[in-house]
Design brief:
Largest sheet: 6 strands, parallel
Radius of gyration: 26 Å
Distance between the termini: 33 Å
Low-confidence stretches: none
Helix content: 25-40%
Mean pLDDT: 96
Length: 401
């Protein structure tokens, strides 16, 4: 049985951040009902262009990633009839999950007090751009603004003298990370409610998640009173460790070494690159001497690693003791045997999606496709006990679709 089997999530959210939390909860076994605007649905459904990639037709990965495994109901919360349906759904829910800003929550009657008046035991979870307190708590935002730019990630990655700023590596980058944080908070709140009977209000923001992802660097910066500065493009990573950085191979690919104890791993690396005599070189005998002679060691490694392709090095480095990895793009990861062995990419209907990174009992989650817009409206209303006359009346009034 999946960990959250039997848990009901009511999701009133749009775009990538909060819906991705619902997707993770669905992966973990929860029943997730996605409330979408009765006429337009989630605006994410219209997102077709992501960087240089454009998706035509269905399935649309931009929708599937954050909405797999859910059921969709089209609902107009601005009508009294639609709001009553929402409250009926709330009475059956364990979690009320929303991305709506405070003003919109008050407008539609879905703020904490209104939802708790309907269901006192519900865990109320909200995702925001900038957090629930402070002068800017009512402001919206996206992962590009709150997570990437404001939390220090863009500036830290952008080399000095670069024109502009480095952009996020892909769509919904900060959204997905923040959504997983929110899913974890919800799971903890459900455990607290089970143990104490007390429901929580759970808050996660894009800004807070961005800061958390930069937590180590921010702590160092605050302690020393200076910002982290990115190295110029093409420069080796560590100034004091030749075994922590990127190296080009003969076919224009790159591999990454991260061996934080260089004296321990240097002799083994020398043997694997066909330069065993360097293991006895006094310049590289201790951590101190390696640090002092990093530039010379980097040049040695650059020349050696440029003599063979990445595939050839991968075969040779199968027995390398220290950590290393190939640098791969978003297409190349699909043929990585280790990724496939762990089922980090999984089928979801007619598309393949990245599974959330949590596995229980060595089992990858079974992913289900995202729902078509309002596809389960009738089914959900029937489960609430409404008869067909009432359902038709709601549709005629425009409250559901």
């Amino acid at each position: 049985m999946k960990p959250l089997a039997g848990i009901r999530i009511l999701e009133v959210a749009m775009y990538g951040f909060v819906p991705s939390a619902g997707a993770v909860l669905a992966d973990w076994g929860a029943e997730v009902i996605k409330v979408e605007h009765a006429a337009t649905g989630d605006p994410q459904r219209g997102l077709r262009q992501t960087g240089n990639l454009r998706v035509e037709g269905d399935p649309n990965p931009n929708v599937e990633h954050a909405n797999r495994g859910k059921r969709s109901i089209g609902l107009d919360m601005s009508t009294p009839e639609g709001r009553e349906v929402l409250y009926d759904l709330t009475r059956r829910a364990d979690v009320f999950l929303t991305s709506f800003l405070p003003g919109a929550r008050r407008k539609f009657g879905i703020d904490v007090d209104e939802i708790r008046a309907v269901n006192p035991n519900v865990v109320y979870a909200r995702g925001s751009a900038l957090g629930p307190r402070g002068q800017e708590a009512d402001r919206g935002g996206y992962d590009m603004t709150a997570f990437w730019a404001r939390a220090g990630i863009a500036a830290t990655l952008t080399p000095p003298d670069a024109e502009g700023m480095i952009s996020p590596p892909g769509p919904a980058f900060g959204d997905t990370i923040s959504g997983t944080n929110l899913a974890g908070g919800i799971a903890a709140a459900l455990l607290k409610r089970e143990r104490t009977g007390e429901p929580s209000v759970v808050d996660v923001s894009l800004l807070g998640s961005g800061l958390w992802s930069m937590g180590h660097g921010i702590a160092v910066s605050q302690h020393l009173g200076k910002p982290m500065v990115a190295a110029p493009p093409g420069k080796h990573g560590s100034p004091t460790n030749p075994l922590s950085g990127l190296y080009a191979t003969a076919d224009g690919r790159f591999l990454a070494f991260v061996m934080l104890q260089p004296a321990k791993f240097w002799p083994d690396v020398c043997r694997h690159i066909g330069r065993p005599e360097l293991a006895e070189d006094p310049r590289f005998a201790t951590a101190e001497s390696i640090a002092a002679n990093t530039a010379a060691a980097v040049e040695v490694l650059k020349k050696a690693l440029a003599q063979h392709t990445l595939a050839e090095w991968a075969e040779r480095f199968g027995t390398l003791a220290g950590p290393w990895a190939p640098v791969q793009d978003s297409l190349q990861v699909g043929v990585d045997a280790q990724i496939r062995a762990n089922e980090y990419l999984r089928p979801a209907g007619d598309i393949e999606l990245v599974a959330n990174p949590v596995q229980f009992d060595l089992t990858a989650p079974d992913l289900q496709p995202a729902p078509e817009f309002a596809a389960e409206t009738d089914q959900i209303l029937l489960e609430l006990g409404l008869d067909w006359d009432r359902i038709i009346a709601l549709k005629t009034a425009g409250a559901v679709t």
